[in-house]
């Protein structure tokens, strides 16, 4: 079992945190994660590790690096995203990478520059080993995780299909083999927004009735179908927009919903509840007008079997590196969902407490950081056969 000292990984993490890679959608910097991508490329080139760029848009790009294995037909991929959420409102300096009592603080320390630094340290060591790894080892640094997922989409659209994938995510070094899905859709209430006739009903009041009914229905449905690791499905109305003039009833409004789904309470079950609720409300309130638009996001929940080779191998390596290992679920959907949907056996695994991801005092424990490098390296050297 290879063991990394914190000194091997900590400098990489502190350098990564010092580079502002807030997603450009937040409009806090013009470059977004491009500077961090440039830094990763320099790190790889210094070690003589082959890498290539995948252009996305403007200057955004993924990086894909490889270390050739003895069996080139099989690949294990380690993937980490480069962008972070907003740095506004943090209680610590977002880019100072301060080390305090065994923790490194800063935006992205936990999500997911800790995993990025540990993967880079492990990859560098594998590349310098005297013997090649059993499988080809790929490393993918992807962009635009926080908002658009365009990086992972571009990676998979290119035909990239590793045998296994390990997604960097804050899991406290537990193995995540399942993740919630996300269904996102809009419901329009009231007259057409182009109508100039005086409204007969208050579209906002009607929308409030509908929201309350949907929350009750989906809460009841979710409670009947909890998942042992992911919990219950969760409805979140997150935006309401209305049209109208002062002194007049608002004739139209639109409500955007997210519903975080689990395997036994998926998109089909949720949309059944939505359609039933609309049908009953329209029957009870003959003057109400409701239009359910087609979902503009439908990311299914995913679950990899506990007996799958990668899951078992990850649990064994985590146990050897950090003590008793456990299975957890990812409540935040994203890259794990995309790999599994593409038919790739995948897990999410990394240093950091998921409760601290995007927090005002985001941090990661140095001890976990070094253990993550151990885990990644030993999966590179001992992939499931």
Describe this structure in words.
This protein is of the alpha+beta class and 385 residues long. The chain folds into two domains: 6-179 and 301-381, Aminopeptidase; 181-299, Alpha-Beta Plaits, CATH 3.30.70.360. Helix content is 34%, strand content 25%. The protein has nine helices and 17 strands. The chain has helices at 6-18, 34-46, 109-128, 150-157, 203-224, 267-284, 309-322, 335-341, 366-381; strands at 50-57, 60-67, 71-81, 99-100, 103-105, 135-142, 164-167, 175-179, 181-190, 234-243, 252-261, 290-292, 297-299, 302-303, 327-330, 345-348, 363-365. The chain has a six-stranded mixed sheet with strand order 1-2-6-3-7-16, with helices on both faces. Strands 9, 10, 11, 12 and 13 form a five-stranded antiparallel sheet that branches. A three-stranded antiparallel sheet has the order 4-5-17. Helix 1 crosses helix 3 (109-128) and helix 5 (203-224) packs across helix 6. The longest helix has 22 residues, at 203-224. The chain is elongated. The two termini are 18 Å apart. The model has no long low-confidence stretch (mean pLDDT 95).
């Amino acid at each position: 079992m290879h063991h990394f000292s914190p000194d091997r990984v900590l400098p990489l993490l502190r350098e990564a945190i010092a580079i502002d890679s807030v997603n450009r959608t937040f409009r806090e910097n013009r470059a977004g994660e491009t500077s961090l991508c440039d830094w990763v490329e320099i790190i790889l080139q210094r070690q003589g590790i082959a890498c290539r760029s995948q252009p996305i848009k403007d200057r955004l790009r993924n990086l894909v690096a490889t270390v050739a294995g003895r069996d080139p037909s099989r690949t294990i991929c380690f993937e980490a995203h480069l962008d972070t959420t907003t740095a506004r409102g943090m209680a610590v300096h977002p880019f100072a990478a301060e080390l305090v009592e065994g923790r490194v603080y800063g935006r992205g320390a936990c999500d997911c520059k800790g995993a990025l630094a540990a993967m880079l340290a492990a990859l560098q060591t594998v590349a310098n080993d005297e013997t090649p790894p059993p499988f080809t080892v790929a490393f993918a640094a992807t962009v635009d995780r926080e908002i658009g997922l365009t990086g992972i989409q571009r990676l998979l659209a290119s035909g990239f299909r590793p045998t296994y994938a390990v997604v960097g995510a804050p899991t406290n070094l537990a193995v995540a083999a399942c993740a919630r899905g996300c269904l996102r859709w809009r419901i329009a209430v009231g007259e057409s927004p182009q109508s100039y006739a005086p409204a007969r009903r208050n579209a906002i009041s009607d929308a409030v009735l509908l929201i309350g009914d949907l929350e009750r229905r989906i809460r009841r449905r979710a409670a009947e179908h909890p998942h042992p690791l992911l919990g219950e499905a969760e409805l979140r109305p997150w935006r309401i927009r209305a049209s109208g003039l002062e002194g007049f009833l608002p004739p139209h409004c639109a409500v955007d919903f997210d519903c975080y789904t689990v395997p036994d309470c998926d998109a089909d079950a949720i949309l059944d509840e939505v359609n039933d609720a609309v049908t009953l409300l329209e029957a009870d309130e003959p003057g109400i007008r409701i239009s359910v638009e087609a979902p503009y996001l439908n990311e299914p929940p995913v679950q990899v079997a506990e007996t799958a080779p990668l899951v078992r191998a990850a649990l064994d390596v985590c146990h050897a590196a950090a003590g008793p290992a456990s299975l957890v679920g990812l409540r935040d959907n994203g890259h794990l969902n995309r790999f599994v949907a593409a038919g790739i056996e995948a897990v999410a695994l990394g240093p950091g407490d998921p409760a601290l991801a995007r927090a005002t005092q985001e941090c990661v424990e140095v001890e976990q950081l070094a253990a993550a490098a151990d885990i990644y390296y030993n999966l590179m050297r001992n992939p499931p056969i």
